[in-house]
Amino acid sequence: MSKADNFLKDFHWLMDVLQFIDVGLVILDRDFKIQLWNAFMQNHSAMDSADVLGKDIFETFPELPENWFRGKANSVFSLHNSAFTTWEQRPYLFRFRSYRPITSSAEYMFQNSTIIPLKDTTGNVDHICLILYDVTEVAMNRLKIQAANAELHRISRTDGLTGLLNRKTWEIELETEFKRYTRYGQMSSLIMFDIDHFKRINDGHGHPAGDEVIRQTAATAAACIRDVDIAGRYGGEEFAILLTNTPPEGAKVVAERIRQRIEQLEVFYEGQAIKFTVSLGISGLSPNFSETTHWIDAADKGLYEAKRGGRNNSVIFTGE
Fold first, then answer.
1. Which residue range forms the structural domain that includes residue 11?
2. pTM recorded for the entire structure
3. Which of helix, strand or coil describes residue 177?
4. Within this chain, do residues 191 and 121 fall inside the same structural domain, yes or no?
């Protein structure tokens, strides 16, 4: 067999590999006209090579981010270095449907891509090759792990019954705010409150009914505060709310809002309506507090005064 025959045979094998390799291969010239469109691209785009060869890739695929892609490609043309993109940076270049509808929940194929320079015999780069990798399974597994870790993190921080921060996490937030006050002097306030005569609810309606009362109390309180405020379940039927950048007078307005809405609330459990109230104690930060426990104690004393004053009440503690 002659050298020419061997060359043609090797070239034929090479073309077979390029056509049927399980990655997308697209060759573009400097005008971004498509010069090669392999079987992977045909199968996933549902566009035969005869339909795309010689055509502008941006006109053919308008979802391709033109400014971004031109910037990437021009750097390859100019610097003769490859460029890379991962699915974390950009989920896909071509909006190909995921072809694993049973084993994957992804609507579109996640893609990694590489753009490499193609040099001619004189060392010039007049063409580039875009290589497209289907990484849908890898991406979905990574996203599932991230979602699971995020859920574990959420669970570790929140109270299972109410969805508010648990006591440990809330106390960490309180400590952070206390340090911020020590450094910058920005006033914040603390509300401690609990459900009046909660034991009667448990004894009269049962603990599941008491849990529902706690749950709806937390939801009502959360609806009365800002996104920047920090609410937590302090223990049992007691709750704590940290109001950032808020003086005690402003915290009293919030406390009254919570008190009035809960006073109007009816919790229905097994056909029975449960009415109840809450008492609230308020304390602003003070230079006299050397640690967070002093702040909590002050708000607790306000809560005690609210109880002693007949319950269903909110009191700002102003004593030393």
1. 3-143
2. 0.66
3. helix
4. no
